[in-house]
Predict the structure.
Amino acid sequence: MQAEIITIGDEILIGQIVDSNSAFISKELNKIGVSVYEITSIQDDREHILHTLGIAEKRSQLVIMTGGLGPTKDDITKHTLCEFLGDHLVQDDEVLRNVEQLFAKYFSTPISDLNRQQALVPSTATVLQNPNGTAPGLWMKKGNTIFVSLPGVPFEMKHLISSLVIPKIIEAFERPHIFHKTIITYGMGESALADTIEEWEDNLPPFVKLAYLPNLGKVRLRLTAKGTDMDTLVKTVDEEVKKLYGLIGDIIYGEEDGDSLEQQIGKVLTKKQLTLATAESFTGGKIAEKITAVPGASAYFKGSIVSYATETKIKTLGVPQELVEEHSVVSEQVAIAMANNVKKLLATDFAIATTGNAGPSKGDSDAEVGTVYIAISTPERTFAQEFMIGKNRERIVNRSVNRAFEMLWKEILNF
């Protein structure tokens, strides 16, 4: 069972929007054993659409398209689909009623003939009614290939995929089972990790594949099993994961599609009735942002001081000026002072502090760009670690946020 996804619209090609639709569709297809062969983004152009559909028909049993279904002249997907299928447009009365009801209920402007044309659909298509928008989804067939055309608006597309498209795919196709499990590691580079688990990897069953996915101090290990018996796939992968924990359990902090590290931290803090504060400099509040994105964070997170400027570290956070003058604002001593002081100010059990030079210039410190210090204060001790994280500003910030959570995670587990 092989599928491909085609996104239609110039806004994707010029970088005006990010193609999040393909990621969602791929994930949902994978859950039901459908492998995505290719993802293509194309212009809303007749010849380009026809050419792409012709290629897709030859190699895939399922083609899902998003975009190009609007009422304006630049959206030509329906007309081009009719040309490709040898079909013509007809009015679907149920779609028309939906369009009229949506305009009556939600729109301040009156409905126009252009809006009513949303009810025109290929005569041979199965219409997928869209309660969230004026453009319906379309399920069509040519030869041995199913073509599905969906609106590009993400929340409309997601509803149609989940409620209508996936059930129809399950009914229409025989599919193998695909099972994924992703283990998230930290603190060891990809090459060193590969050397450590080489023997285990070499002895994986033939229907289980391993992929290394490195990113900002983490390496995700994705095991993928494909076969006809889901119970066997799950059991085999779980057994291999147990072996993996025996080899590198000290650097595994979780599994993807489970809780993120910040969610796991929140659960442990809540369970142990412990509290947390942060004092951030170059990370600019990103640690606090990730913490507060977790529902229920108010139970353990008391707040943050973003002391971006040296003056703020001294006047608001209470870092002694002589400490800054003696050791530099980017130093182990200042990071420790920040963590101690924010923990005291907000009366918490734990605290995270960051100070560093993310570039592009050195700012108030002589430390090289990429030099960062992350401090953790616990009920028993306060310590800081120095990291050198390259020259890219975004990478420095994001990797430092990850490092801070990793350091905190170890401390709260051992407390």
Observations:
- The radius of gyration is 27 Å.
